[in-house]
Structures are given as C-alpha cells and as structure tokens.
Amino acid sequence: MLKKLKALFIVEDETSKQPQNKAASQSKPTTSANKTAQKPSSQPKTTGQVASPSPGVNKGKPDEKFINRLLGALEENNIEGFDYLEYKQSLQNLGGVEMDEGTKFKSALAMAKTMGATNMKLISSANHYLKILNTEEKKFLDAFKNQQTLQVNSRNKEIKDLEGGIAQRKAQIEKLQKEIEQGTKALEARKSSINEANNKVQSTKDNFYHSYNIVKNQIVEDIQKMQKYLS
User: Fold this and answer.
1) Distance separating alpha carbons of residues 2 and 33, to the nearest angstrom
2) pTM, entire model
3) Would residue 182 count as lying in a domain?
4) Is the separation of the CB atoms in 33 and 89 below 8 Å?
5) Distance CA 141, CA 12 (A)
6) CA 115/CA 48 separation, integer angstroms
7) How many domains in the chain?
8) Which residue in 9, 105, 172, 190 has the most C-beta neighbors within 10 A?
C-alpha cells in the first residue's frame, strides 16, 4: 500500500536542476491505490478551508524516512470505501488523456459517483488526511523540541560553567596559565559542538518540512481544485 501511495504522491529530488517532465509526472502508475484491511475511520466534517503553507517549504530536501512516515500515517488512517485517495488515483489515470484540468476532475468525479462518492465526501476525506498530516507534524515538533533541549540548550550551561572556570583561572598566578589555555580550548570545542548540534537538528526539521509539504501541498492543491471544479 505504501508503494501505491508513493505512486500517487510523486516525490522529486529538487536538487536536480532539470525541468520537471510533465508527461512523466502524469504517467499512469502500474498499480491502483486499493484499500488495506483497516477499520473505517470517522469522516470529519468538510470545512472548505485550505491549510496555510508550513515552514521550511524552500529548505531541506525530501527524506525517504519522513516520506514513508507521512504516507504510512495516511495508510493507517485510510478511510474505507472510495475516497480522496481513490479519486486521486482516477485523476492520475487520466494524466495521458488530452483534456483540460477541469474536465479531468469532473470525469474522475463521474466515475467516483458510481462508487458511491460525492464531491463533498471527496473533499471531506481529503481534509481528513490533512488532519492526519497535522497530527504527524505535532508529533515531529514535540520530538524536535526534545532533541533541541538535549542537544543545544543543555550545553549552554556547560559553556557558562567553562566561562566561569576560565575567568577564575585568569586570576591565578602564571603556573595556572596552562590550565587556563586548556579551559579556553575546551570552551571553543563546546561552542563548536553546539553549532554542529544546532545545525543537525535544524537540518532534520528542514528535511521533515520539505517532505511534509510535498505531500501536504498536493492534497491542498487537490482540495482547491475540487472546490473549484466540483462545487
């Protein structure tokens, strides 16, 4: 199922400078997004609201671990029956058909109606998956804050302690000069380790949001288009 979801949410490495191949991005996948044997989740009410962009849109790079985590969460909370994911599959299957975007959305809806779906149900289920992504975002932020505290904030105290020790050693006689120099080197090493730790956790955050927004923005765009074409 995870591979099928990846086929729906195309993830491109943006480090590549080559222009996007539209035909390739719209190519028909070899498999369809069938449902797994999950218990049905309750559908949220359609709000009609489009989520605002998340931080880190232009930072970081797609991370396979985060992509799998986000799509795995969608899979675990997959709504039983024909919903947004099947509708997105239908849209993708129409990628090679020569018709305008609005016609594709309406054509996919016509097929969806034969499966008991409606435009409101499709938008409602898409909002359901946005809420799942929001939950994953909150989980990530909690873990990120904990790591930031462990890797960065806790080391600030070590810096202050070293600075105090250096100040005391500078007041001592010449025989303590060697100890002062050793303390200074240790201080610089601590500062360097904090910068490295901060860059590492920030890079992790950037990678998450880049991966998060790749999936989220596709859902958001589809909601906007469904609201535009299916209302």
Assistant:
1) 9
2) 0.55
3) yes
4) yes
5) 24
6) 23
7) 1
8) 105
